[in-house]
Amino acid sequence: MVAKNTVLTSDEQLKQLDNSLVVIRQQIAAMKKCLDTKNGFMIALKHASTFLGELRTNVLTPKQYYELYIMVYDGLEYLSTFLKDNHPNNHLADLYELVQYAGNIIPRLYLMITVGTVYMSIPDAPVKEIMNDMMEMSRGVQHPIRGLFLRYYLSQRTKDLLPTEFHDNNNNTTSLTGDLTDSIHFITTNFVEMNKLWVRLQHQGHSSERMKRINERKELQILVGSNLVRLSQLENIDKIYYKTKILPTLLEQIIQCRDVIAQEYLLDVIIQVFPDEFHLSSLDDFFNATLSLNEEVSLKKVLMTLINRLIDYKQRESTGDFEKNFKNLTLENVFDRFIEFINKINELKPDLSSEDYSSILEGICKLSIAYYPNNYDNINCIYKYAIDKFNEVENNDNNLKIERHWKLLLLVPIDGYDDIKLFLKLDENYLKFFNLQKTSLKRTISLEIIDKFIENEVKLDNCEEVEKIFEILKSIILIQDDLTIKKMGLKGSKYGESALFGSDSAIAEDTIDSIEIVLQQEKLAKFLHLISNKNPYKCFELLCQVKKYLQLGKSKIKYTYPTLISIVLKLIRKLNLIHKIETKQQKIKVSNFFKFISLLINEINELSNQPSLTLNLNLITAQLADEIKLIDISYDFFIESFMLYEQSIIDSRLQYQTLITIISKLIESKNMIELNIDNFNQLITKATLYGSKLLKKTDQCRAVFLASHLWWIIKEVDDDSTTTMTTMTQISLKKDEKRVLECLQKALRVADNILDVSVSLELFIEILNQSVYYFIHGNDIINVKYLNGLIELISNNFKTAGEESGTSSGTGTGTPLEVTYKHFDRTINYIKEQRGIDERFQQIKLS
């Protein structure tokens, strides 16, 4: 044995452990050998006492001591089995007295418990007397670790032998065998004594070893908690008995010990091991106890454990079983009890940290949603408490630390309800509390709300819902100075102008949006698609309401207004498909849709320098107006597009691209041709003129010959004269042969003036292709003579170019001229192929 209070190093402790394990192993083997030998029982007890003596050490850590204990337990288990199988009843009573004469208290008590529990298992044994005797004798070991393991052994040996039935007090047998009351007293007494030993361990040794003691206590805590597990496993205990008899005793001991580790751990064990019905029946007692705990105990941790347990229970049980288990409990009181507890906290613990307070409110909010999902007043009440607490700490420097907790509280209804729209039923307290938060936090929560709606494709179909949700989303709509980046700082960066704004050359703003704002606004734009109503006119009203909020974003409308416009255009198409734009009144209603779009486009143009965007939106709208035969509206949108082209499109390349788009949209405006040709002629004349004024000659040439299609437009319609299959018939909507020729001739003159021969020839070939198109479709001026002359012109130019470069056939290997010649060759081959289809092509000279 090592001297008392000797402090060993880690290596010395391991050596001591190994030596003790060797002794125990040897003595157990000797004990078993003696037990198997006739008349060797007393010697076996001597060997048992010897290996039990190794448990008297006080130099090992709890983990090392546990290794000794396990090996000793196995040895005593063998002895216990031997006693049960080989000793008559009367001999066990004598033996129980005999082992108590062992020289040392540790071997004496372990042997007494071993024999005593075997004695308890026989019929007519004085169980109650033995229980009381063993409990009383165990008080003799007051060393924390040795005493804890001894009592743990007592608990293990007796767990299946304790009385499990209540008996009448007048029953004579009760005084001998005991009843369930005695079992409860036995376990609770053992728990109280073990807890005292466990707490006492904290005060052992030098103050410098405080953390070491804390770790050792945490290693030993399961021994103390095992008593509570035993209590919870006793049958025939109902929630009333638990509330009146068991819980008060446990809580009294927990409160009196005043130890933080013990109080937190033991309350957690009580919550985990006893049935949920017991907790719900004793909420008031539990709450009152938590208010009397050590100030350093985490009230949040204890309460959140209880709340999560109750929530899991509600989710685990079916509705029928849940109600059946609560015949004697008024469920409506559960939330009220928590609220009463919050009031007590405010009164008795006004200094409770905001982090803990918000976490408790978060848990109660989750519990209310689980138990009373349709009672929104409960949630409103919680946010009222949150507002009051927030205002108390508004000027506190620690506000930054609790931001995460406020966020979690605000997200509870978002994540808690199966249908996220239900959180919109909350009253103004939620919004008030939300608006108290920092902009960054409000923005984060808003984005999570948007994600939830988009993920679940939840539609918003009435004004109240739209108003409530956008009051929250204001945080990502309004301008945020902290998310802007100076233009000068972006020069050359990966988030430059072209990345954010396209190729517009002029940006009027001094700052541009960060990539974070761009992503936020893109997400908001996706969210707009969830604004929906089966009635298109009511849906339009919702979009008008949304516009009032989006316009607060000022320059950021360039991200959201286009989506809003596309949704309105979709509504117009929907009305058109179901034939609801026929009467004058219906057309007036739909015209309001277009007025709304015009307003949106104008605001985009005023608040953000995005001419390409606004011009394209005008063109798309003009095209749709033409489709539904509102040609005057279509004309107005085309005029707006032309004005933007003249005033704002400066870059020459962008001018060409925009003009091509305008030409394509005009070609598709077939209803305007049929219903108001004068307006159409004005537009196409202007478009052709734009093409002739482009800066680059190549762009000018292509724009002019493409504009020729504005004077020669064909519409394909179903031919109803055939009954076997559907065929398409071409109807000429506009044929102006002279203007077509003028455009092609103008394009030829421009191409001829280009100095680069290969570029000039490429344009000639493109004009030839356009001419072949008109020839096929019956333009009398673009005839065989015209095509022959154009082919001859191109051939002569190739010949001249070849002579100048010194190559045959006007081509050189790998040169741009060779690529151009291949293009010409493909065109000639096409004309040859057409000779087999259209005899007119026979007259075209190809050599």
Automatic annotation (TrEMBL):
Keywords annotated in UniProt: Membrane, Protein transport, Transport
Record membrane topology: Peripheral membrane protein
GO biological process: intracellular protein transport; retrograde transport, endosome to Golgi
Record localization: Membrane
Family designation: Belongs to the VPS35 family.
Name under which the protein is recorded: Vacuolar protein sorting-associated protein 35
Record GO cellular component, one term: cytosol
Main location: membrane
Record flagged with keyword Transmembrane helix: no
Pfam families: Vps35 (PF03635)
Function: Plays a role in vesicular protein sorting.
